[in-house]
Amino acid sequence: MAHDATKPEVTLPAKSTWNFQPDLPLEDRSIFNLKRGPAEGLRLLWNSWLPISDRLIVVGLSILTWFYLSPSLQTARTFAFDWVAGVYLRNLILITLVAGGMHLYLYTFKMQGDRLRYDARPFHKKNALFTFSSQFLDNVFWSIASGVTVWTAYEVLGLWAYANGYMPMFDVAAHPVLFVLWFIFLPFYGVFHFYWIHRLLHSKPVYNYVHSLHHRNVNVGPWSGMSMHPIEHIAYLSSVFIHVVLASHPIHFIFQLQQKVLLAVSSHAGYESVTLGEDRDTGLRVGDFFHQLHHRYFECNYGEPEVPCDKWFGTFHDGSEEATARTRVRMKEMRKK
Fold it and tell me: pTM of whole model > 0.90?
């Protein structure tokens, strides 16, 4: 096969580096890569949603949540213990079902074994670095004590603001196309917001006092996704402030929060996909090797692949040894500051 001089040579990591890795080097699969043309970009957008994706599941969940598991706007006009507690309990149950269910399936009962698992090393036990000296208990504690609390606070304030006219709201029947477009827009906006918040979290003082709590998890699991310091939870979920500026519907507000929380859980699952047993290679795509690289090498892949901020700003790690070397140089430079 003729050598393609337009593509630089890359060295792939040794097999011992990862238990499982996707095809490397990682490519820029964002729809914003204009070299592919609009048709390929639309195909990638379509495939990111259909025929089934975790994002599409959250859309359905957010609609069900609004109609069956949320207070009416009339009720939300005034703060009251019963409906606020109801929202907290519902969010607690949601994260427990998703994170707890995935942990039981993948790590307690090991229904897939280590098939499609990125890092097969066990979680930390009897390690003083973690709360209760246990990575699992540490992750559960911070996900619930801080994560569910901040998530619920944002949602309660948002519903109250919609109910009292402090956030602009449109009628779905009058604007059905806009209603659908919000679901497409929010993930892209969320990634862009996350990239810059994440860069801020990696500044030295903020990292030392805040973000380091999340980064204790080099080898991640479902409960790791929302295991954060309260200040990080506030910053991470602050993307919902866009609804103060642009008219939306409470379903979009609920969707954005559920997406940020529940997809953080799934993307930290530690597995490429959840499958029915050890003998299958395909299933529901949940893991994010792109972000797994960030937890291993820290100063890279601050965003997500959908919006190529890491490509644009020189922090992209494609899984190659050359990218690892560049990232280690960046880490040394940042430690000197």
Answer: yes
